């Protein structure tokens, strides 16, 4: 029995979140369904640039994962998905993938467009993701690194990096931006 490190365990959770049709593979269609859920919840029309940016960020990441997988594959099993994420090089070759995702998520979550995510905007996001509101203040505090009571794009980016790269402990609050509870 292989003992999984925290990164691998988090990536397995992410796989389960994405594989919404439960067929044991993650595909681009799984990502599209998630982007459509954002569009519906945040009332983003098909021409909204925030929606396009979110889809583009996920598409770029997906291509990055496929580039690290067996050529010709268009769906990834759990093991392939975990291995591809770890091979992408978020801390070396491709930091842009997480930066762009953070930027796109930030623009959608910042519903009033004041360039910062308030605790109310964060709570609305948690409701959308089906996370109980009880933990919201604690999660918010952990994400608000500079303690100014708002979440910045940079704080989201840092949390996503920690989710993918920190192997110190299982819990990484950035998972919340990827749909982990
Ligand atoms: Ca805001
Ligand atoms: Ca902050």
Model description:
The chain is mainly alpha-helical and 181 residues long. It has one domain (6-178): EF-hand (Recoverin, domain 1), CATH 1.10.238.10. The protein is built from eight helices and two strands, in the order H-E-H-H-E-H-H-H-H-H. The chain has helices at 6-18, 28-41, 49-67, 78-88, 95-109, 119-129, 136-143, 153-165; strands at residues 26-27, 75-76. A two-stranded antiparallel ribbon has the order 1-2. Helix 3 (49-67) crosses helix 4 and helix 3 runs antiparallel to helix 5. Bound molecules: calcium ion (2 copies). One calcium ion binds next to loops. Pfam families: EF-hand_5 (PF13202). Residues 6-41, 97-132 form the EF-hand domain.
Q: Ligands in the structure?
A: calcium ion
Order of helices and strands: HEHHEHHHHH
Low-confidence stretches: none
Can you identify the CATH class?
Answer: Mainly Alpha
Largest sheet: 2 strands, antiparallel
Rg value: 16 Å
Report the β-strand fraction as a percent range: under 5%
Question: Superfamily at the CATH H level?
Answer: EF-hand
Number of helices: 8
How many structural domains are formed by the residues? 1
Query: Pairing-aware structural class of the strands and helices?
Result: mainly alpha
The order of strands across the largest sheet is 1-2
At the fold tier of CATH, the topology name is: Recoverin, domain 1
Head-to-tail CA distance between termini: 26 Å
Overall number of strands: 2
């Amino acid at each position: 029995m292989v003992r999984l490190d925290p990164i691998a365990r988090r990536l397995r959770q992410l796989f389960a979140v994405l594989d919404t049709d439960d067929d044991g593979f993650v595909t681009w269609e799984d990502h599209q369904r998630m982007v459509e859920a954002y569009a519906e919840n945040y009332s983003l029309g098909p021409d909204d640039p925030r929606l396009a940016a979110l889809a583009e960020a996920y598409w770029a990441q997906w291509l990055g994962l496929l580039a690290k997988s067996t050529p010709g594959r268009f769906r990834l099993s759990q093991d392939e998905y975990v291995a591809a994420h770890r091979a992408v090089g978020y801390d070396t070759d491709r930091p842009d993938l997480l930066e762009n995702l953070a930027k796109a998520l930030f623009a959608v979550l910042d519903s009033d467009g004041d360039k910062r995510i308030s605790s109310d905007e964060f709570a609305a996001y948690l409701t959308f993701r089906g996370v109980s509101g009880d933990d919201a203040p604690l999660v918010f505090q952990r994400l608000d690194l500079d303690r100014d009571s708002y979440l910045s794009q940079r704080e989201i980016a840092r949390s996503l990096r920690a989710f993918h790269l920190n192997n110190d402990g299982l819990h990484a609050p950035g998972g919340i931006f990827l749909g982990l509870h």
